[in-house]
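pinned: reference chain
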Amino acid sequence: MQEIFKLLLGRIATNIGDSIILITLTWYISQTYEKTVYLGYLGFIIGIIELLIIFIGPIIDRYSIKAILLIATFIQIIIVSFLTFLLYLDNLNLLTIYILISISVLCSSIIYPAENTIIPSIVRNTKEISKVNSVFQISYKVLDLFLNSLIGFLLAIILLKTLMSITIAIFIIALYLFLILNIPKRYKQNEEQKSTSVISNYFQDLRLGLKFVKKPLLLKLLLPLTIINFAYAGGIVIFPKLGEIFGGSMYYGIILLLNGLGVLVGYLVAPNIIAKVKFNIILPVVFLTIGICWIGISISYNQNTILPLLFLFLSSITLGILNLVFITAFQIIPPENLLGRVNTTNETLISLLVPFGSLFGSILADTFSTISFNFFIVGLVSFGLFIFYSRDKDIQKIYNLEKIDI
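pinned: its structure tokens
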């Protein structure tokens, strides 16, 4: 358990460092540059990198995991040190931010799956693996919520360069923890064959998954989620600007906190709702609620602070319920032998438009010189999906997911 504790602390440290980099640089761009499109470019870059995570598997499989963790964390130290140096010189520009944050997000995208790969080799008892995974996930989610508000608060009381200097120390702690981590040697396969098979298996799974989800009823469930994610990405990209309107970085932290906390609450209450409410009622009500909330934000954000924050929190709870409803649906509907392939397809399709949503939302805000249209469009799309799910005959026939006929 000592090695698990080291790994957990290392993960917590890297998570803190990653969050500080992303949130502070997002806020820096929002504060320094008037045009919202620069935030859109940032969201687009991050979204594209996250879509390319599938190709990271061969790297993790082919090389020493400990070496990967050490190299990726060391690169993060260099990035933060360089950022801090530029901030002290007052010479940080957009191109530098985009390049450095791209490398940082790429390192994070390597570190997290690498850490997950270590767990089975450290935890010998298979019954304990799920418990350890649960602790890691809960720690990750709760820490994210805490960090969102804390970083916003810190930005309000200390200088950005001071916060970046602290981040260097945090990554050094993570590097030390990974350095003293004792990872058992894994069973070695033919590395070339293994790395090649990861990518080929992904595309094979994607093809088979697409073949399954091409069925009309499943497309009616999946495509609306892709559409709402596109609109939602265009809404959240202007959260820093909303924080500025409310009064500063502390409010930006509160916005991120309420957004994350709402989703978490949604996950907690969703199982009871799924068990007690018919599926054909849940979907329309969820989208109606999201629509009302985002239209409410669009109307009220310039008048006061509390009401739009309440709307955001309620919308996030509903979004958490929606996410769990769809996760459950696509765990029950596909045959057991197709679960992995269908999930691969779903994750790809759902995430595909998110980078473009961020870009669209930022361009929209700049074109009309207001962020109200971003909120309004999320509400409008949600109302459209409410009407669709209320009137579609196939969806209205679904009372219970376990008895669905596709």
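why pinned: The longest helix spans residues 126-157. Residues 187-193 have pLDDT under 50 and may be disordered.
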